[in-house]
Amino acid sequence: MADTYGTAVKWGIRMEQNLWELRENCHMEETLCKKREELRARRKQLEEKMLELSVEHRREVQDVKDLEGLTMTSILSSLSGTKQKNLEKEQKEAEEAALRLEEAKGVLEQVEKELQSVDHQVRQLRGSKEKYETALKEKAAQMEAAGVQTGFSDLEEKLGKLETEFIEVSDVLQLGYALRSQLQGIMDILRSSRNWGWADLLGGGPVTGALKRDRMEQARKALAGLDMILEYFRKKIREAPVVSRISYEEWGNDLFAADFLLDGFVIDELVQVDIVDCQAEMERLYEQTETICKSLRQRAESIRQQKEVLQKQWLEYMETIG
């Protein structure tokens, strides 16, 4: 009995020591990550400064070359008797620019070296938070088994429900993205149909008419696929986009035949109106879909934040009990 008690005590001490080390690693990783971001920002500033100094240095070097060569600047300086004085001045400015550039380069190299060191330390500590949370959950399981209430079961239940909801929202969101992509494709085809339709109205020949009908046939096939996605979307979410004016199964049927058999200005105009109406409907559906996707993204983000808050609150509570 004494051996069992002693073993349990030793195990408890090791567990607490492990938790302490993992918690320290978490704090260290957080501190290092902040430092890494600061160093990255500093590096960006120095790189921009290096670019400015490089431009300045090249300009100063070019000024020296202009005075040393057979340029108008050199000739005018010689005629005025100030060439040597100006040359010395430009050489000094070029040397100073080179010195500033070299100093900035040295600072940048130092920051880069420090950043590499911090990156290495962060990589070594990567996963500390997950390990710490796992260790705390193991501690909670042991305490629950001993009859101590830690709220772990309640946390797992709440997180499970939120995760299920998150998966459902994500699935519908992916469906929304597919619907949006399908609508974009149809709008592109209809835009092309409309353009060929205008060309047909303005006196186009058989070629423009054939191209217009080809685009309309592509649009009709795409609309059939859209109808299936919309139907599936409605089963998943009540706020699915609603078709108000276009019957996809019948769209353009009569006018297609008339446009082919009785090609003329009146028929071309009626077909063009049909294309424009369908395009307006697709744009309306696209806006509805984008609004729904935005709402779903907000809901997914809200669930993610709720999970983080619950885990943080539970972790803070676990750190206060023994």
Structure write-up:
The chain is an all-alpha fold and 322 residues long. It is built from 8 helices and no strands. The protein has helices at residues 2-68, 72-80, 83-125, 128-145, 152-201, 206-236, 253-261, 265-320. The longest helix is centred in the first third of the chain and has 67 residues, at 2-68. The radius of gyration is 36 Å and the shape is flat. The two termini are 23 Å apart. 16% of the residues are buried. The model is unreliable at 257-262 (pLDDT under 50).
What's the short version?
Helix content is 88%, strand content 0%. With 322 residues, it is mainly alpha-helical. The protein is flat, with a radius of gyration of 36 Å.
Gyration radius from CA atoms, angstroms: 36 Å
Structural class: mainly alpha
> End-to-end span in angstroms?
23 Å
In what range is the share of β-strand residues?
Answer: under 5%
**Quick one: overall form?**
flat
User: Low-confidence segments, ≥5 residues, pLDDT <50?
Assistant: 257-262
Mean residue pLDDT: 78
How do the SSEs run, as a string of H and E? Answer: HHHHHHHH
Biggest sheet details: none
Summarize the topology.
Elements: H1 2-68, H2 72-80, H3 83-125, H4 128-145, H5 152-201, H6 206-236, H7 253-261, H8 265-320
Main attributes of the structure:
mainly alpha; 322 residues; 8 helices
